[in-house]
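> @MW can you paste both from yesterday?
MW: sure, first one:
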Amino acid sequence: MIRLVNVSKTYNGAAGRVAALLDVSLDVADGEFVALMGPSGCGKSTLLHLVGAVDLPTSGEVWVDGMELTRLSDAALSRFRRDRVGIVYQFYNLLPTLSTWENVSLPALLAGASPRSARERAIELLHAVGVLERAEHWPHELSGGEMQR
């Protein structure tokens, strides 16, 4: 369950304060599918960043599965992101000094998997998305579509 209660997010920019979200309340039940739609700059990414604990609201409460994210410590937020959040970014966030399989295995290693287990899982995932033959390649050697997968 995702619940936002009177959530606002304001950024300080060169032109002054910018309100990305103003007093948003929302409930999303487990298993429910929701589409965020709107013009560029209306707050879609900001909303996703708040629910994914990538950012915190200026005011209001963000709840995910009974946890109020706005009350968690930095360490607890890091664990929440590591264990519970998966984000597919519009742009690629691969580390240029790691091979394809090393980039894919990194989250498993951070979660405590053994290096062997992390590599095996990375190979499975690369196979599943059709880029196993690029496992030893560097990010700059991949196409945009390969990097996204």
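MW: second:
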Amino acid sequence: DKDDAIDWQAYFHLRNRLVVAALHWDGKISGLLASHLKATLKHLLCLEYSTVAIQNKAMDDFLAGPEHIFSILESALPEVRKLRQEYPDAVVLPSATALPTPSDKRWRKKVNIPTNPVAISVRLARGVVHQLTPHDPEHHRRPQINVATQDARWFSLARVDGVTVTTADGRGVVYRQRDREKMWELLRESVKRQTQLARKFNRMRKVYRAALPTLTSTQKWESVLLNSGDG
């Protein structure tokens, strides 16, 4: 299985969600943006930097318009996969044994999940404070902990600098590494694009709705697929 929320599919989910909203949603875009901002912060706390990077690309491609999306039908997936490989959290290793043994001996396999507002707030505050500090370079050479996919939650990872996480499909592990500067850069770029979406969405509605006959045209899709096949 794949984890659609963080894998390459996350690019297409967000891009297509924006296209559908532009075509069929007449209300305010604030709810969608608030949901995306919350998800972005969670990804960053979980050290899922590659996911934020490809979702930033999804917003760029949506804002470039329907003709642009048609033009990258063939190239989008390879580009997304290439972009993900720039981040350690998307590079699959055969197993955790390819790395030194974890340094944190106090880690317990059982993850304590915060369930009440006070516990959630305390755990979140501690995680945010840790995110604001420089990472320990040693934890980029030797992971602190190994966790299973189902345990890779924000309340488990927000206070670590290096962690191996098993992949959802069981192919191996990824070595997620906290990087404060990279985190801030990705967050700034995400917020900048979300601000652009808020400002331009009404205009993008008109652009995509004007292009609806083309987007649903059998002839257009045939020409795109034929050109793709010729390549």
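> thanks! Residues 100 and 142 are 5 Å apart (CA to CA).
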